[in-house]
Amino acid sequence: xxxxxxxxxxxxxxxxxxxxxxxxxxxxxxxxxxxxxxxxxxxxxxxxxxxxxxxxxxxxxxxxxxxxxxxxxxxxxxxxxxxxxxxxxxxxxxxxxxxxxxxxxxxxxxxxxxxxxxxxxxxxxxxxxxxxxxxxxxxxxxxxxxxxxxxxxxxxxxxxxxxxxxxxxxxxxxxxxxxxxxxxxxxxxxxxxxxxxxxxxxxxxxxxxxxxxxxxxxxxxxxxxxxxxxxxxxxxxxxxxxxxxxxxxxxxxxxxxxxxxxxxxxxxxxxxxxxxxxxxxxxxxxxxxxxxxx
Length: 294
Description:
two-stranded antiparallel sheet, about 40% helix
């Protein structure tokens, strides 16, 4: 594993990021730790916690996933995808909102679900699962509001200023939605082992994570027809994250969490996206080699 850790460090460095990773074989518990207990800002990765909380409440009979919610055009949480980008009134079920939140990281869908579920329920869910360092502080609307407030009158354009970036609450794990790579792989492992919620609900969570449309991060490290990758991304200024599960045809299942930060404020940094897949592949290959798999 020492050689793999060195290769991970090199990959992160060459991509111009600081990276933290945890990977675990879901069935054997074998793991690779590269800063697994580092507090990190989750961004949209925290939608996974909300998704699990939603299904726990549904399994307990506290809500019906077919319940319909109205979403008028006004007051939607900003975002480039899903309901956030639509112009007309929409009415859809909680489970379809969960699909949009997971597959295209729709912020409006996430906040509609949070309005129904509540931040406290999300935090109770992560606490019950033993994720002691995972905590939701803001709705996604509130998180984006902190960016606007902290940026000041300069608006979004000033977010390229390194001095401004240092004062953003959204980039400080002590003041925003947070977790660690290890907590996230523990959550994923619980979902894949049907321990996070009732089996039919865990299967629904796995299905939605498998429908995520973004292939440029975690999935980019596994360009094989017979390897399945399911995951959830998270993005904030200078931060690019993804957590997910990689499944091989021989039955191997690996939960991986990769969180990165770069000093470069550009919104488009292909190398920073791609290194998430590279790092995940290096970690999974090391775990498979340790188990005698190729």
